[in-house]
Specification:
237 residues; WH_DNA-bd_sf; GntR family transcriptional regulator; transcription regulation; Four Helix Bundle (Hemerythrin (Met), subunit A); three-stranded antiparallel sheet; 10 helices; DNA binding; DNA-binding
């Protein structure tokens, strides 16, 4: 058995599938949420049969959901050993951060040279307002959700169809680190203030200031990577 892997299979609580929505989307979202919440911990075995029974689902949507999670880097399949929740990898985290920053900086530069549409401004401002409310409520899960919405809204505002997809895929490698990093309201407030600074600079078409704030924001999690490693060594390769 590979170091740090376990065949123990916990059964996280899952909502019943909504028959009016695609099963694969629901299974993927539920399993991803369980991995981010560490209900399925790094190194934990993932069984296709168990998941099918858990959701009362056929194999096809389960396999497709697992394929998506594999593409996200959240699970790994080892020949003759099985499928496991992947361990966190510093190399993978730094690589994903590098690619994400390159894409988002290019997006911000493009936005600073455009007139933001009314819809784009509404979507960005709604995400910011929802983050403020999440801080008031002390709801870290909601804050992360609306954090994602803010970055997605910026990507969508560029009008480049595939940009949001590419960003979300690279960000998936960072999501578990973000969950471990956001520990209190003060940290959430710092992240929100950086979002607001980026947006203000974009509206002012101040390209260099927008890029400076964005880079500071995106690199924040790398600044505490060593602390997270020391606190959660069992989650890392």
């Amino acid at each position: 058995m590979r170091k740090g892997l376990t065949t123990e299979r916990p059964t996280p609580e899952m909502e019943p599938l909504d028959l009016n929505r695609p099963a694969v989307d629901q299974i993927y979202a539920a399993l991803k949420g369980a991995i981010l919440a560490r209900q399925l911990a790094p190194g934990q075995a993932v069984s296709e049969n168990d998941i099918g029974q858990l959701f009362n689902s056929s194999r096809t949507p389960v396999r497709e959901a697992l394929s998506r999670l594999r593409d996200d880097g959240l699970i790994v399949t080892l020949p003759s050993r099985g499928t496991y929740v992947s361990k966190l990898s510093e190399q993978q985290i730094r690589s994903a951060q590098f690619i994400r920053e390159a894409l988002e900086v290019a997006a911000i530069r493009r936005l600073c040279q455009m007139d933001l549409s009314a819809r784009a401004m509404r979507d960005i401002e709604q995400a910011l307002a929802a983050q403020r409310q999440a801080i008031v409520d002390g709801d870290r899960k909601a804050f992360r959700l609306h954090d994602d919405q803010f970055h997605s809204a910026l990507a969508a505002a560029t009008g480049l169809d595939r940009l949001e997809i590419l960003l979300m895929r690279e960000k998936a490698a960072l999501d578990r680190l973000r969950v471990l990093a956001i520990t209190d309201e003060a940290h959430m407030a710092r992240l929100l203030s950086e979002h607001e600074a980026v947006y203000d600079a974009v509206k002012a078409r101040d390209e260099e200031r927008a890029v400076e704030w964005l880079r500071q924001h995106l690199r924040r999690v790398l600044g505490i990577l060593s602390q997270i490693y020391e606190a959660h060594r069992e989650y890392f390769d």
